[in-house]
Amino acid sequence: MENINFNINYSETFVSADERAAMQTEVQAAKATLLSREGKGNDFLGWIDLPEEVDSAMLDSIAADVRRLSPIAKLFVVIGIGGSYLGARAVIEALQSEFEPFRNDRKAPYIIYAGHTLSEDYYHQLLNLLDKHDYAVAVISKSGTTTEPAVAFRIIKGHMEKKYGKDAGNRIIAITDARKGALHDIAKQEGYQTYVIPDNVGGRFSVLTPVGLLPIAMSGYNIDRLLQGARDMRRICIENNTLDTNPALLYAAMRNILYRKGRKVEMLVNFVPALKYISEWWKQLYGESEGKEGKGIMPHSLSFTTDLHSMGQYVQEGERTMFETVISVERPAATVAIPADEQNLDGINYLLGKSLTDINHNAELGTIQAHNDGGVPVLRFTLPEINEYYLGQLIYLFEFACGVSGYTLDVNPFDQPGVEAYKKNMFRFLGKPGYGA
Ligand code: PA5
Questions:
Q1: Residue minimizing CA distance to atom 12 of ligand 1
Q2: H helices present in 37-119, as ranges
Q3: 309 included as an active-site residue
Q4: Which of 7, 31, 37, 424 is the most buried (most CB within 10 A)?
């Protein structure tokens, strides 16, 4: 098996070898702090060993739920917000067809999402859809008290009870804390099938727990391969201690060097739309982990070549406070030929004989060079292809680098105190008891 490659060639004019050498010492110290489990937020480091400590009974139970629910559910509603849905969505949307709802040959339930919005129109449309199709639900909340998924679950539970009567409970799976929270209490009272989110794993680091694994498996994808990829990347991240041998250390080092040199915005860039939700997951991972105490790189994302026709001008010539991290994909899953046309009225016959992937790779190279010439440092990850194994590698690499990078920045990467601010105001405006007038 190949590994994900990380390349910094297009940032060498912005970051010197001496700067990298100096930063190596810092990220090595941050890594040591992470692995010693003595740093900030050390009660939330369970994610480090998740790929090695997979509970086989949990995997068997997920497989049994997939067998039980797939034949009776055309749709599978994942109710959750933030870390309780983005990881699953990132993997599922990377693997499935862009036109998945229009496939007639799909055997697994089609995954749809709720609990990530309070839009009334969204729930109206969702309920209309659920009227017409058989479905099952996973309701996911670590705290078990988050308002958005609680509202969504109340609405959908009511719909299920009308539609399925006493059988509704057999179509509901709750994924939450082992002991506390409203969702835990509801699941216990109703006797739902339940999975536990480990105490020491925070939401945005939970994709390799049932939070991510159950929906991904329900969607028909191979979670063993996902975990294998994560396991192999874990070994690379833990066993290697230099920037040349450890891509997570090098990524964390480059981010911190660039940040200190005024690069306050990082754009995660893809050239295949399938990776859009990987960017959404990554934005939460880095934004929530590092954006605190008035510090932290602002994570942003772009899909090229699409966004070259909307944001390309800014990236090329706007304020020079950004850098790009490209996720490149070497091989497509399938090929599409460009047909010959003798008349060549569109003028693109010069592309004949090249695959679309060749053309896309040349667009990527052209973009990287142009942005580099325009003063934007570019980092680049390359995935041999998009499959469960490489997504597992990528997830672990980003998580490990996030822990190292956050410690290098000297913040607690594993808390999110700022998320409470909007909730307190919203609760006060809504008149929730205990939140003032
Ligand atoms: O990373 C986090 O901890 C958060 O983004 C949570 O995942 C998000 O707020 C949802 O919380 P919960 O799973 O408790 O409903």
A1: 141
A2: 56-69, 86-95
A3: yes
A4: 31
Q: Which pLDDT does position 257 carry in this prediction?
A: 98
DSSP string, 310-361: TTHHHHHHS-S-EEEEEEEE-S-SS--PPPP-TT-TTS-GGGTT--HHHHHH
Structure tokens at 391: 């997504």
Cβ contacts of 344 within 8 Å, gap of 6 or more: none
Residue 137 bridge partners (DSSP): 77, 172
Q: What are the pLDDT digits (tens) for 49-88? A: 999 999 999 999 999 999 999 999 999 999 999 999 999 9
Question: Any idea what the Cα angle at residue 208 is, between residues 275 and 97, rounded to 5°?
Answer: 30
Amino acid present at 56: S
Residues 127, 85: Cα–Cα separation, whole Å: 20
Q: Are 320 and 376 in contact (CB under 8 A)?
A: yes
Does ligand 1 come within 6 angstroms of the Cβ of 324? no
What is the reported pTM? 0.97
pLDDT tens digit sequence for 340-384: 999 999 999 999 999 999 999 999 999 999 999 999 999 999 999
Q: Which long-range contacts (CB under 8 A, 24 or more apart) does 421-428 make?
A: 423/147, 426/147
pLDDT digit string, tens, across residues 153-175:
999 999 999 999 999 999 999 99
Ligand 1 mean position to 366 CA, how many Å? 39
